[in-house]
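Thread title: Can someone regenerate the structure for this chain?

I was given the following input by a collaborator and told the matching structure tokens would be attached. They weren't. Posting the sequence so someone can regenerate them.
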Amino acid sequence: MLIPEDDSVRLLSQILEGLNYEKLYKAYSFTGRKPAVEPKILFKVLTYAYMNNIYSSRKIESACKRDINFMWLLEGSKAPDHSTIARFRKEYLADAMEDLFYQLVQHLHEIGEVKFEHLFVDGTKIEANANRYTFVWKKAINKNQAKMFTKIQSYIESINLTYMTNFTVTKETLLNDIEKIIDYLKKKKEEEQIEFVHGIGKRKSKLQKFNEELEKFYERQKNYNTHNQLLDGRNSYSKTDPDATFMHMKDDHMNNSQLKPGYNVQIGVESEYVTGVGIFQDRSDNTTLIPFLNDMESNLGNKYQNIIADCGYESEENYLYLEEKNQKYYIKPQTYEKWKKKSFKNDISKRENMVYDKDKDEYTCHNGKQLRPIGIIYRTSASGYRSEITVYECEDCNNCPYKSKCTKARGNRKMQVSKTFVEKRQISYENITSEEGILLRVNRSIQVEGAFGVLKNDYQFNRFLTRGKNSVKTEFMLLCFSYDVNKLHAKIQNERCEKHLHGIKIA
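Best answer:
Regenerated them for you:
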């Protein structure tokens, strides 16, 4: 045989033969004609192409005609053309890719490669297939909309004075209000038999001018409504790919960031395999953790025992969610690195450097004065989570020799503390500094950051080929599917199967 027994293409074919393609074949059930290449075979070809860093549909077509491994996968079928491959990836695979990916994860679990024990979570920004100069900013939309509303009110006043009417407009019902006024002006035109004129040298009547301006305002407002609908809580989007948000990309070796349209890609890794994928439009990792874990649990039917993540995922909401799910969290506090510095330990203004009496619920400052609770305020996060904040005030800061180092306030020092957050942060800190926590933190940097390093550098995947959130998710899941098969093949070759964690090397 020309293809060796231990070639990755044979392992791929063996794994893919064991998957259920019901959802994939359902996508073809309404087309009314038999596909030129069987969907299962086309999926094999596409996956093997991604395993070998071939992403262009034209290059895949070329490989099917020239590469013996691709020919072997085709099983005698005619090589698909680039349009068939592109159509399959964009249209037919979209509804089935997630199901196929998690079937692979379940297969890895069945053969003992994945135990659903330690999930290492991280995210990265990947550039969208969109022009970087097609941005729409929420701030600019709001600013221009407010200016236009002022102009509209001015025009309405002029109309009311001219025709002795009492029209009013509100921001909430602006389109309907303008429509009513336009209808009134059209009736007025018919009653007074005024003819609208166009062209150079013709004088427009006052009614025609009012009508034309209002129609322009009406169209502009429709455009603003469309922009606001597409923004949907975001600060920006791209006209070329409306699902993409403008994010800072670490482009060069100095991590200098540039603002480009992209997606926040989240992955979960266990035993070096990617076991979960999420595509988000939010630039912050903080709000992605809960929907990401929910999506993984619903697809796998299992939840992980331990969640290991960096400081970008730390929030009171995330801590409480993981506690409610009985999942142990190893999330590095955002102030973890600062805590180790001598300058932080010597800073008397920091809450961490004050003595706290839990029974009396009061802090003691550097001068021996007590900070006692004076009230409670509530803060709502971007995700809608409501946290309770206790406000503490020092009993007396007058004539305090340390006041300039402690606070800039003219009166007594005040301090806002979320007791729940402080308590959960301390638990997480104890978890990550334990013997097991240190081992898991080391593995997080090796496994999940290592996976992104391979995907972005070795696989040279730095920009999506498709557009739209669903298509992008399909594309990235296909890449991770290929990554997992390659990883399994490498482990088999190196006799590293069922090795789940890397040990700590002691210098």
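Residues 138-163 form the longest helix (26 residues).
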